[in-house]
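Subject: Protein record for review, amino acid sequence with backbone structure tokens
Why sent: The fold of this protein is of interest and is recorded here as tokens.
Enclosed: The protein record, placed directly beneath this head.
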Amino acid sequence: MNPFVHPVHLENDHVELRPLTMDDADDLREATRDGDLHTLWFTAIPNADGMATEIERRLALQRQGLMNPFAVINKQPGPLIGRAVGMTTYMNIDVSNRRVEIGSTWYRRAVQRTRLNSACKRLLLAHAFEHLACIAVEFRTHAFNHRSRRAIERLGAKLDGILRNHQINPHPSAPNTLRDTCVYSIIDNEWPTVRAHLDFALRASTRHSL
């Protein structure tokens, strides 16, 4: 198995990323109900009834060497500690050019706008640059997903460009609409600065929560 899709366990003080399995389905069904995330027309988040199918889809792509899916496990104190609160992946894997996208990410509403996203990206970026020797890591999002765009920009990623009419939106609440995709990236020589920025932000958020 190529190292980009080999199951790996990543963890820091704030979040645990473990290989996605069907055992995570119940937590993830509850997670998608928190905020009715599947109703967001500019995303492709499964509803509770479709969660098992979505997990199997991601695992099938892993078997094909196209994706490495993770369950996002919350380690922040509170009622959700130890629970799966979302999903994320390495996708659009280009082994020969040592490039990967971090994407198909979503979190339940209760943990959005917390340190969890920065902590999750810190783990994935470190593994990509320091263990997989990536020369670039991409992030892609719908042009109308302004929250996602701001979150990506806060990481230190730069906008490479916008793919106009990139995809046909399959969401049932927005028929006949087209997706403009914003493509961001962090490249390998930027990683030390981005890493310092993320570490500082995580330390600061920890102090402020005390």
